Amino acid sequence: MTKIAPSILSADFANLGKEIADVENGGADYIHVDVMDGHFVPNITIGPLIVEAIKPVTSLPLDVHLMIENPDAYIPMFANAGASILTVHQEVCTHLHRTVKLIKDNGVKAGVVINPATPAETILPILPEVDLVLVMTVNPGFGGQSFIQSTLKKIEQIAAWRKEMNLKFELEVDGGVNKDTAKLCIDAGADVLVAGSAVFNKTDRRHAIEDILSAVGD
Ligand code: DX5
Ligand code: ZN
């Protein structure tokens, strides 16, 4: 079954609690939280305070995507704030294995994410250690960008490694996912779809989620 993780980056921040309830009632599986620091990506969004504030308003897991430099310094804060999954970028982790262990030691599921220009091979050694792999299908920083088709090969490659090594991590995609591109991702082997603008920019969020799911045949 395909999972849907609406990204609150495209939600109405003045009504965040209501927005989250709306997608939870509409069939979302995770709430995707985009944390940006203005260094790793050219945008600044939210921090642990917001994660802590939204934790009590939803029963869904908080899927926290850290687009920040030096994630080790902030992992304990996000874990304490209520993150269920913490995903770090391979590009900023000099000691990726240590960072993944730090996430797990904080009692949170560990994910690793690669940008569109980062080869899949860079995360091959860490695959047995992670709960989730996120393949960026746009360059991170903003919602509403166009899907980069060349990322599909990497999704296929990572899905093939997962099968070969008999691993159980979830394979998530993020960026430009809508009812047209979702099927490409699922056919390539993804099982969790992050969708920001394709869900929150529609007035009927349940319908938006159902549209994506029916496009992939779920
Ligand atoms: C991009 C973020 C995404 C973003 C996706 O840097 O990581 O999660 O919210 O937005 P859409 O689905 O609109 O491309
Ligand atoms: Zn994201």
Task: Please provide a brief summary of the model.
By secondary structure, this protein is an alpha/beta fold. The protein has 8 helices and 8 strands; from the N terminus they run E-H-E-H-E-H-E-H-E-E-H-E-H-E-H-H.
Short key terms for the protein model shown above:
alpha/beta; binds zinc ion; Ribulose-phosphate 3-epimerase; EC 5.1.3.1; isomerase; 218 residues; globular; manganese; metal ion binding; TIM Barrel; 8 helices; binds D-xylitol-5-phosphate
Total beta-strand segments: 8
* Helix-strand sequence: EHEHEHEHEEHEHEHH
What is the CATH topology assignment?
Answer: TIM Barrel
Overall form: globular
Count of structural domains: 1
Strand order of the largest sheet: 1-8-7-6-5-4-3-2
Query: Helical percent range?
Result: 25-40%
Q: Unreliable stretches, pLDDT < 50, 5 or more residues?
A: none
Mean pLDDT rating: 98
- Termini separation comes to 7 Å
**CATH class placement:** Alpha Beta
Q: Which ligands accompany this protein? A: D-xylitol-5-phosphate, zinc ion
Which structural category fits the helices and strands? alpha/beta
Largest sheet at a glance?
Answer: 8 strands, parallel
Please tally the helical runs, counting DSSP H or I stretches of 4 or more residues: 8
CATH second-level architecture: Alpha-Beta Barrel
Rounded to the nearest angstrom, the radius of gyration is 16 Å
> CATH homologous superfamily name?
Aldolase class I
